[in-house]
Amino acid sequence: MKLATLTTNTYHMLNFRNTLSTLGPRVLISLALVSLTLVSGTTTVDAAQPNIVFILVDDLGYMDIGANNPDTFYETPHIDRLAASGMRFTNGYAANPVCSPTRYSIMTGRWPSRVKATNFFAGRRPGKFLPGKLVDRMALEEITLAEALKTKDYRTFFAGKWHLGPTEEFWPTKQGFDVNKAGHNAGGPYKGGKYFSPYGNPRLGDGPKGEHLTARLADETVNFIRESKDQPFMAYLAFYSVHTPLMAPKKLVQKYRDKLTKMDLSDEGTFADEEQVWQNSKKPRRVRVVQSHAIYAAMVESVDNAVGKVINALEEQGIADNTIVCLTSDNGGLSTSEGSPTSNLPLRGGKGWIYEGGIREAFLIRAPGVTQASTTCEVPVMSIDFFPTLLELSNIKHDAVDGKSLVPLLKQESKWEREELYWHYPHYSNQGGFPGAAIRQGDWKLIERFEDGRTQLYNLASDIGESVDLAQKDPERVDELKSKLHAWYKEVDAEFLQAKPDGPSPWRAE
């Protein structure tokens, strides 16, 4: 990538020199500035009103993309190209281990716990105790990212999975989006042909029979980009993939079946034992530890191809240098249920768990004129940070939120501090995860379990797999982090587990 970039830049420099003698002094100055930006690896951008493309991939694991995991079984050249063109965050997190809360955090820049939006909307599974109270909609009073951008006359577009309200009054066009393609209450494509037309989606017309939903959403986004290229816009592409049901185009599935045959992978050693949380489970829960699911691999590649379509469209329309592109996921890869299609190793757990596998995400930002190509950032950041970051890059003021602008990090400035990140999940997840909360401070992560108040302490710098619990060896640090976590509970009015009728009372923070 660096060699290709150097070759392209050298070509532009030669053309620049060859035209010097025919141009006036003002044009020479302008070309010189362009030349300097080419050499530095950045491009100019209309700082006042850059376009924004935000790509959200449902259930994509941190280790699923080549940029984060060169040994991944899946093929993601377009996402890797995006990562190489901007900044890749190696400690980027979702605000929650399941979808709706993280989607809320991106839209508002706020902790989901403030409004009790702490599980996927409609998720109320009981376990030993009843879950915490859940609000299952993003209130219309919230100022969304789309609404903030419209104060500067942005045209706004949404495509894909919304899952932020049960009825039409809470869907995208009521929350600041001019156009909505496929966004409604459902958390997945569960009707009609599911991932293939006819879709049975109330906000997306059917295409030709057998049309692939992932490709269709990319096509709708590309059409919007072409129609809007002459005015500032935000295109928010929230794929339903790679969420279940596990379905993909047959040719791609066969490609990965052939790949498995060549690799001579057997089923032996594909799964390992997992922590058991649900009571009276008939079958012990297991976790996938090898990436070898052909259908899931095809779903990942389908998303990657769709991302490539969108990036190519920006280049074809001549607006790539004035468009910020972000890509992330709403939670970790699905590794412990519903087919357990991916492995997040060396990260522990997956979707529905507050271990790293459930909350650490692919987290990419390319902001032309701000980010340099092929840069990485190890500072822990979270989905709540997108809101203030994108508004600062768009020169739009906003009220205080919980997220913090990442612009200083994108510029590789040293002055940027945030002491802690928090997660709060007072629910029994469909994937087997336990109710609890977590705090990360520097390399340290404390987990507090809500059934009994038990704590776990990990040093992520030396133990990214969260395999060595240091709570008993470092009680002072446990007390310090617990104190901060409990103070945060009060700040956000956190919910906890509830007793069943005539049942015992669960643990509750003081």
From TrEMBL:
Its EC number is 3.1.6.1. It holds the Pfam family Sulfatase. The keyword Ribonucleoprotein does not apply. Signal peptide: none annotated. InterPro entries: Alkaline_phosphatase_core_sf, Sulfatase, Sulfatase_CS, Sulfatase_N. Keywords: Calcium, Hydrolase, Metal-binding, Signal. The keyword Cell inner membrane does not apply. Residues 50-395 form the Sulfatase N-terminal domain. GO terms for molecular function: arylsulfatase activity; metal ion binding. Its cofactor is Ca(2+). Belongs to the sulfatase family. This is Arylsulfatase. The gene is atsA_57.
